[in-house]
């Protein structure tokens, strides 16, 4: 048995972890743009990355290390993705780290992570100058969370404490960024999860891959996948506590929290919808339909307009090419049934009730396929004028 308790604060509350964020001149107006995570003990590290074939230089640099390596330092910059920069992008990371010296605090297999505009060389001079001002004994998770933001409307973090049956306990927390270019198969997102649990590498990777399917791989803002997407777990083992089942469950909670914060941000989004597809022929077919709904621009704009247009829902399911039959399909907005096995239930009163559901900040759109037992829930948001405004001048 174990108990999982949400707690307030940032990853700097976890034993042995230090972090901060500064302004290094990458962003204008003195905004924070460079941060770090440091551990007083080398961490077991596991990560999953974007499925975009054009992976950014920081990801390639990470993958040059041997599997199951340990690290004590992650350097994170915003405003520049260091993507589509070729071999020079990796060389720049090596050059950058070769110029950092923190005295008695030696860097072990340092990791670089970047987010921002694709296709620009990394501004090494600014980053080195900024990083040299770091105090690796700082504990300022709030600054770190703001330094990694790009188009995010707000910083994203969460914290949990896990109490085990033997009386030991460990903490786990995350800091993340992500608001746009969010599509199933990760997203334009960075997520750093720190824990003082003593987690074996194999267990980190197993839990990451399993939990990603129902969290980061189940959200969509705009149907795009970027080049830098990273979910990383750092385990320094300082608590000497561990339970595989408890770790897998609390990691799921952390990843779900971060995923929901990202889709709710959504570069101007006001609505979050859970697209719950049930009774499909298989779980795989349910996933296909649910993700099609979360990605559909027509569905997203209907959410923005608070229009319970069930025709767009049904059309998207049919276009996903899963097995379906309109005489078995049931569509509901929360508990308001608008289409029931070939019968249109959309009279004036029902439309008004469904419209009231769409006025809420969060709701479910439930699609009962009626052909099996497969199910999957994907999460999406509305798409409005603000999204176009943000992305029309993203490089400025």
Automatic annotation (TrEMBL):
GO biological process annotation, one example: ornithine biosynthetic process
SUPFAM superfamilies for the chain: DmpA/ArgJ-like
Binding residues for substrate: 150, 177, 188, 267, 391, 396
Compartments where located: Cytoplasm
UniProt site positions, description: Cleavage: 187-188
Ribosomal protein listed as a keyword: no
Pfam hit, one: ArgJ
Entry EC no(s): 2.3.1.35, 2.3.1.1
Keyword Ribonucleoprotein: no
Major subcellular location class: cytoplasm
Annotated catalysed reactions: N(2)-acetyl-L-ornithine + L-glutamate = N-acetyl-L-glutamate + L-ornithine; L-glutamate + acetyl-CoA = N-acetyl-L-glutamate + CoA + H(+)
Catalytic residues of the enzyme: 188 (nucleophile)
Record site: Involved in the stabilization of negative charge on the oxyanion by the formation of the oxyanion hole: 115-116
Family indicated by similarity: Belongs to the ArgJ family.
Alphabetized PANTHER family for the sequence: ARGININE BIOSYNTHESIS BIFUNCTIONAL PROTEIN ARGJ, ARGININE BIOSYNTHESIS BIFUNCTIONAL PROTEIN ARGJ, MITOCHONDRIAL
UniProt-listed NCBIfam families: ArgJ (TIGR00120), PRK05388.1 (NF003802)
Role played: Catalyzes two activities which are involved in the cyclic version of arginine biosynthesis: the synthesis of N-acetylglutamate from glutamate and acetyl-CoA as the acetyl donor, and of ornithine by transacetylation between N(2)-acetylornithine and glutamate.
Subunit and interaction comment: Heterotetramer of two alpha and two beta chains.
Protein name, as recorded: Arginine biosynthesis bifunctional protein ArgJ
Source taxonomy: Bacteria, Pseudomonadati, Campylobacterota, Epsilonproteobacteria, Campylobacterales
């Amino acid at each position: 048995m174990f108990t999982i308790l949400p707690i307030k604060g940032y990853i700097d509350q976890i034993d042995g972890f230090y972090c901060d964020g500064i302004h290094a001149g990458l962003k204008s107006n003195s905004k924070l743009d460079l941060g770090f995570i440091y551990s007083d003990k080398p961490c077991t590290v596991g990560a999953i990355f974007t499925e975009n074939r054009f992976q950014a230089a920081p990801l390639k640099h990470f993958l040059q290390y041997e599997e199951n390596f340990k690290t004590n330092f992650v350097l994170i910059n915003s405003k520049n993705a260091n993507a589509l920069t070729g071999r020079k992008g990796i060389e720049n990371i090596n050059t950058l780290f070769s110029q950092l010296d923190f005295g008695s605090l030696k860097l072990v297999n340092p990791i670089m992570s970047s987010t921002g505009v694709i296709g620009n060389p990394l501004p090494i001079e600014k980053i080195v100058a900024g990083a040299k001002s770091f105090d690796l004994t700082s504990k300022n998770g709030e600054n770190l969370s703001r330094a990694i933001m790009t188009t995010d409307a707000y910083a994203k973090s969460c914290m949990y404490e896990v109490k085990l049956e033997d009386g030991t306990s460990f903490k786990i927390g995350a800091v993340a960024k992500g608001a746009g270019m969010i599509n199933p198969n990760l997203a334009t997102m960075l997520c750093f999860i720190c824990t003082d649990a003593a987690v074996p590498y194999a267990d980190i990777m197993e839990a990451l891959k399993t939990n990603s399917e129902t969290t980061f791989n189940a959200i969509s803002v705009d149907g795009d996948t970027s080049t830098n997407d990273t979910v990383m777990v750092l385990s320094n083992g300082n608590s000497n506590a561990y339970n595989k089942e408890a770790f897998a469950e609390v990691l799921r909670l952390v990843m779900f929290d971060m995923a929901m914060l990202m889709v709710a941000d959504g570069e101007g989004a006001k609505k979050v919808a859970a697209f719950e597809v049930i009774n499909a022929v298989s779980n795989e077919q349910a996933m296909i339909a649910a993700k099609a709904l979360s990605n559909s621009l027509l569905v997203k704009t209907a959410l923005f307009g608070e229009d319970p247009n069930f025709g767009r829902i049904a059309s998207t399911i049919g276009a996903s090419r899963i097995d379906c039959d309109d005489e078995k399909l049931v569509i509901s907005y929360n508990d308001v049934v608008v289409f029931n096995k070939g019968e249109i239930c959309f009279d004036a009163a029902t439309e008004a009730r469904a419209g009231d559901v769409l006025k809420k900040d969060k709701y479910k759109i439930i699609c009962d396929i009626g052909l099996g037992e497969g199910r999957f829930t994907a999460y999406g948001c509305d798409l409005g004028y603000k999204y176009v405004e943000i992305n029309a001048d993203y490089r400025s």
